[in-house]
Amino acid sequence: MDYLGEHTEEDGPARHSALVDPGEEARGRIPSLLAEFAARRIDPARMTGEISVMTPEDQHTVREIGRVIVAGHNPDLRVWPGYANRDEILDELKTYASITGRQEWTARELLGSPNREESMARIGVHDEIAADLPRLAATRAKLQAIATGTEPNGLAPIERVHLAAVLADIDTGRVLHRKDVPELMWADERSRSAVDSDWQIHCGVRLASRTENRIWELAQASSPVERKTDQEYDRGAAAQNVALALYNVASGFGLDNREQTRRDHRDYYRKTVNELDKVLSRQGVAPTVKEAIHAEIHEAARQAGSIGREADDRDRQWVARTYTMVTARDDAQAQRRAAEASCGTGRSRSMRTNHAARQHQCLVDIGAPFVAGP
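Predicted structure:
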């Protein structure tokens, strides 16, 4: 909660130990990813990145299905039945909260109606509530089973407990809207890094919006323009473009093509500031006020640069964390296989040879394009 309350110096998702194997999390999303791949809405490069956190064996399994899809067939995409897709569960949870909240609001409106008795007598009869109730009951039962079921589903124990607690909060009226569902719902690295990234984006948006408003306030105090006029539009558009340039800087340079992104951000920033200066001069804003506006923009740019550097640092932390986890897991599994092979005196030579061939193919797949053909 400190993290979500903006106290980010000492806390944050990246500072807590990992709880979920990235490969286990990916298993739950594989059916939807393969469906998108089959529909050509995801390219092979994206698929390669998505499965890169999985074990060599799991990657090989997914690649084989990809080859079948490319060959024109329709294989069963449920590679690991029962594994939870956290994205889909969260969407269902938010929808359940939203519909429950809407019904709660409708009930309160009916209770406050002058014709309360007549209205209450008709509630649930050929209305929206009647249509929602079966769907709500089914969704509630499904989510509860995911939270409390005994079969493994890829969710960590802490995630199951959290899901059950949020369902209880919806039932008791504490959560009655999509936005009330906890921002940090899951404990896996992908979800936590997404929340971390969203917070960095929020910081950039807030800085850009604050600067845009400040530009408008200073310019309007010096040279007022009427609402719904060309002058208002020109000034507003110029201020918005500067705000967008600041947001770009606050978003960081990313982990790829950093120098090109840096140049693009710098050039766009200079261009928008020059365009704003021309608009302010044309509209008669006093030179001293223009200087004050430039000072505001330059200070905001300095802050945006700081936010952007932190965003890039955090991105690198998440990439490094995931790489460390995946490498340690794969190394441990390789050591176990080597130990089993050295102790497996009861196996036949052909069984050991076939097993080694499968392992070799899995390792060949690592780092290769997702699928090149059938």
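Summary: Residues 287-343 form the longest helix (57 residues).
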